[in-house]
Write a structure and sequence with these properties.
Layout (H helix, E strand, L loop, with lengths): L36 E2 L2 H13 L1 E9 L12 E7 L2 E5 L8 H7 L4 E3 L2 H10 L7 E3 H7 L7 H9 L19 H9 L4 H15 L2 H11 L22 H22 L9 H10 L4 H5 L7 H5 L1 H12 L22 H4 L1 H20 L4 H4 L2 H9 L7 H15 L3 H23 L1
Parallel strand pairs: 1-4, 2-5, 5-6
Antiparallel strand pairs: 2-3, 3-4
Protein name: HRDC domain-containing protein
InterPro entries: 3'-5'_exonuclease_dom, Exo_C, HRDC-like_sf, HRDC_dom, HRDC_dom_sf, RNase_D-like, RNaseH-like_sf, RNaseH_sf
Length: 428
């Protein structure tokens, strides 16, 4: 018989035997057979009748062709409701989704990362009267990972396969494995909503969530100002004329992409824009011989690229963009110390205080208060320095910016303290 105190000869001396890793969580599977894609009026009528007859909230998801198409339109809409099962609707096949909107009625929508799907669903005529966002609920609860797969694993103990997350959903017909993947995206949402809803109640954050979800119903993507500045590698381009070339080539590419409904990077890569903006060729031959200028659209649209660059070459200096983007917000925080030392001190006081407050309530700082809102207040607070009037002024300004009432109740005292303390220090 082996002495239990005798070291295992296969275990290195001085180390403890390690426990075997836990078995992986079971893979999430469809609870019902995969439904056929709804792409006819008769099939849509059956789906609407089933959704209307179901009970409880409606889980909804949409698939777009990001990375393949210029538009952000929905190419597949998945729905699931207790008592009605899962339905996969092809919105491209229909002139209107009004029958589906009517079938859903006032039922609560369940979405994950609602800001991604609401715009494309609204585009086809679908809009919620009430919603619950499982990703946002996870953030408010302080869960470390809030992706759908992460929450399904941590809360429901199951794994989700994600191998088809970046496919071209404008493909027709859609392959069966893709459809199975899409159906699984709504399969766990009802159960997940129940668990997260209970946690919100237990943590006292249900009211916060209600305010957040209500605000989401009117969500609109923020228009990008000077979107061309996000061109990868633009920092390597020198001078205002070079920046003007990046802008002109980006805008030309964007127009072509929109005309063809193709993602811009498939027309011309960012690296080609940067190469051409650095070399500034003004003939087709010079353009196509520019090192780094390549891609399927480089030669096909050569005349348009040359025209854009020629126009930039002839621009007056004042017509060209500057390095710093224009905006209506405060300057970059790193410049505050030179431009307004008192404002810089306000920010220095407020940042750790907001972080501590977020940690106290177990949620990310950016969900406690949008960082841009805090910077706007701290850069240009209300003129009054009476603490009570200042509190009212900051609260009103945050409300104008879009901060919810629960956020204002928590953060206004912190911002007031930062303003008052920084200016007291400056006087001393």
């Amino acid at each position: 018989m082996t002495d239990p105190n005798t070291p295992d000869p296969d275990t290195p001396e001085g180390t403890e035997p390690t426990e075997p890793p836990p078995p992986p969580a079971p893979l999430l599977r469809l609870s019902e057979p995969l439904p056929a894609v709804v792409d006819s009026d008769a099939a849509l009528a059956e789906t609407c009748a089933a959704i209307a007859a179901g009970t409880g909230p409606v889980a909804i998801d949409a698939e777009r062709a990001s990375g393949y198409r210029y538009s952000s339109r929905a190419y597949l809409i998945q729905l699931r409701r207790e008592g009605s099962g899962t339905h996969l609707v092809d919105p491209i096949a229909f002139a209107s989704m009004d029958p589906l909107q009517e079938a859903i009625g006032d039922a609560e929508w369940l979405l994950h990362a609602a800001t991604q799907d609401l715009p494309c669903l609204r585009e086809v005529g679908l809009s919620p009267t009430a919603l619950f966002d499982t990703e946002l609920a996870g953030r408010l609860l302080g869960h470390p990972r809030v992706g759908l797969a992460a929450l399904v694993e941590s809360q429901l103990g199951q794994r989700m396969a994600k191998e088809h997350s970046a496919v071209d959903w404008s493909t027709r017909p859609l392959p069966t494995p893709w459809l199975e993947y899409a159906a699984l995206d709504v399969e766990p949402l009802v159960e997940l909503r129940t668990l997260l809803g209970e946690q919100l109640e237990e943590s006292g954050k249900a009211g916060w969530a209600d305010e957040e979800f209500d605000a989401l119903r009117s969500f609109e993507p923020t228009p990008r100002i000077d979107a061309w500045r996000r061109t990868s590698g633009v920092h390597r381009v020198r001078g205002r004329r070079g920046l003007g070339a990046v802008r002109a080539l980006w805008e030309t590419r964007d127009a072509i992409a929109q005309e063809r409904d193709v993602t811009p990077g498939r027309i011309l890569p960012d690296s080609a824009i940067v190469a051409a903006a650095s070399a500034m060729p003004t003939t087709r031959r010079d353009l196509l011989s520019t090192a780094g200028f390549h891609g399927r659209g480089a030669e096909r649209y050569a005349s348009r690229w040359v025209a854009a660059l020629t126009e930039v070459a002839e621009m007056a200096e004042e017509e060209l963009p500057t390095r710093a983007p224009r905006g209506d917000g405060p300057p970059l925080p790193r410049t505050w110390a030179d431009r307004d030392p008192v404002a810089a001190r306000r920010l220095e006081i407020a940042k750790p205080a907001l972080s501590a407050l977020a940690e106290q309530h177990t949620l990310p700082t950016e969900n406690l208060l949008t960082p841009d809102y805090a910077r706007r207040i701290l850069w240009a607070p209300p003129a009054t320095r009476d603490p009570q009037a200042l509190e009212v002024g900051i609260d009103e300004r945050l409300a104008e910016l879009g901060a919810r009432s629960w956020q204002r109740r928590l953060t206004v005292p912190v911002l007031v303290e930062a303003v008052v303390s920084a200016e007291a220090e400056a006087r001393d």
